[in-house]
């Protein structure tokens, strides 16, 4: 099957299938009142006042994305193994391209699912699930496994520096870089998941850019894998745009964050994520700057962080923030692709 047809068909099928089983998940989430708890006003007064009306909105909508992706991988791999006509041509599960990102997606999503359940049942610090320290430790653990896999299983030590060329960091150097990079990306995506449709829309453009890069490199199975994620993300966004029927939750943000980082490493272009995922960079920097400023001066620089909450606090409507972030992420994704293409011919 032609790779273009395969990728587009998988993305379209993922969209249709995800849309089809969304009502069943929605009924479960509402029936068992698996709603998100908003942080206490004493912990985050600005955030609590702005989002009080969202308390009880079901979370764990990210299940739609990673469960669909896992189901597609298993189903079409089985179809290939048993020689099922036509369906076997849709298999995209390979050790060299998709085993690691799929495994990371499922593992991190399961961890995020646990955190979501802790939040729903008011278990943990202030009844809000895992603390930031615990989350960072979990990010670190998953990132360490990912970095180890690149070295031990894929024997990967190289990344590309735009307009400079390939850089072989060696085993230790690449391990350290991959470890820190995956933590940073996972943290950034998790921070972006704060407004209806915000994380989903910005992830969509980032995965779209890296899917195109994977395709141009001839990594068709990886491009197909990201195509399935893109199709599922589009279906998720159908129900997540303001006002959201449900939130992505950590089960979506954690899994998709580390998967995006691994895809960037697999195509050898992690540094391009600074451009492609610029909104994620800005979100993370706002948190880091806020914490540093408060530690140094005892006062806040922003009314609330990440930066999208600051924009809310100064009066920007939620849809306005989300739509403008989508526009910015679309532009930066295209710019990242331009950098990639120019770098190939310079």
Description:
- The chain is an all-alpha fold.
- Helix content is 68%, strand content 2%.
- It has a two-stranded antiparallel ribbon with strand order 1-2.
- A hairpin with a 3-residue loop joins strand 1 (158-161) and strand 2.
Properties at a glance:
single chain; 346 residues; mainly alpha; two-stranded antiparallel ribbon; 13 helices; globular
User: Termini, distance in Å?
Assistant: 33 Å
Number of helices: 13
- Provide mean pLDDT, rounded: 90
- Beta content comes to under 5%
User: What value does the Rg take, in angstroms?
Assistant: 20 Å
Strand order of the largest sheet: 1-2
Q: Care to count the β-strands?
A: 2
Major sheet summary line? 2 strands, antiparallel
Q: How do you describe this structure in short?
A:
The chain contains 13 helices and two strands.
Give the helices and strands, then pairings.
Elements: H1 3-31, H2 45-51, H3 63-81, H4 99-120, H5 132-152, E1 158-161, E2 165-168, H6 170-192, H7 198-216, H8 220-240, H9 250-266, H10 273-276, H11 278-297, H12 307-313, H13 318-345
Antiparallel strand pairs: 1-2
């Amino acid at each position: 099957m032609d790779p273009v047809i395969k990728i587009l068909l998988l993305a379209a099928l993922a969209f249709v299938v995800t849309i089809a089983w969304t009502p069943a998940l929605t009924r479960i989430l509402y029936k068992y009142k698996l709603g998100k708890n908003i942080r206490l006003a004493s912990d985050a007064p600005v955030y609590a006042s702005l989002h009080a009306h969202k308390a009880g909105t079901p979370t764990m909508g990210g299940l739609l994305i990673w469960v669909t992706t896992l189901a597609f991988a298993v189903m079409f791999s089985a179809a290939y193994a048993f020689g099922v006509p036509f369906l076997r041509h849709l298999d995209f599960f390979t050790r060299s391209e998709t085993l690691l990102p799929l495994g990371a997606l499922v593992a991190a999503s399961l961890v995020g699912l646990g955190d979501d359940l802790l939040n729903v049942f008011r278990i943990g610090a202030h009844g809000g699930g895992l603390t930031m320290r615990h989350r960072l430790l979990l990010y670190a653990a998953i990132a360490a496994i990912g970095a180890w896999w690149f070295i031990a299983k894929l024997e990967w030590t190289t990344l590309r520096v735009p307009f400079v060329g390939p850089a072989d960091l060696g085993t230790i150097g690449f391990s350290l870089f991959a470890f820190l990079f995956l933590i940073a990306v996972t943290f950034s995506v998790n921070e972006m998941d704060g407004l209806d449709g915000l994380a989903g829309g910005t992830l969509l453009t980032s995965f779209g850019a890296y899917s195109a890069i994977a395709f141009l490199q001839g990594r068709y199975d990886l491009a197909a894998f990201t195509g399935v994620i893109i199709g599922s993300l589009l279906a998720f966004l159908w129900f997540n745009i303001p006002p959201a029927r449900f939130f992505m939750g950590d089960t979506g943000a954690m899994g998709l964050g580390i998967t995006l980082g691994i895809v960037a490493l697999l195509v050898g272009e992690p540094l391009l994520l600074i451009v492609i995922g610029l909104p994620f960079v800005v979100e993370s920097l706002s948190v880091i700057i806020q914490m540093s400023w408060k530690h140094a001066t005892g006062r806040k620089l922003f009314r609330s962080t990440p930066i999208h909450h600051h924009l809310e606090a100064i009066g920007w409507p939620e849809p306005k923030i989300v739509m403008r972030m989508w526009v910015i992420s679309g532009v930066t994704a295209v710019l990242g692709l331009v950098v990639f293409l120019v770098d190939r011919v310079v």
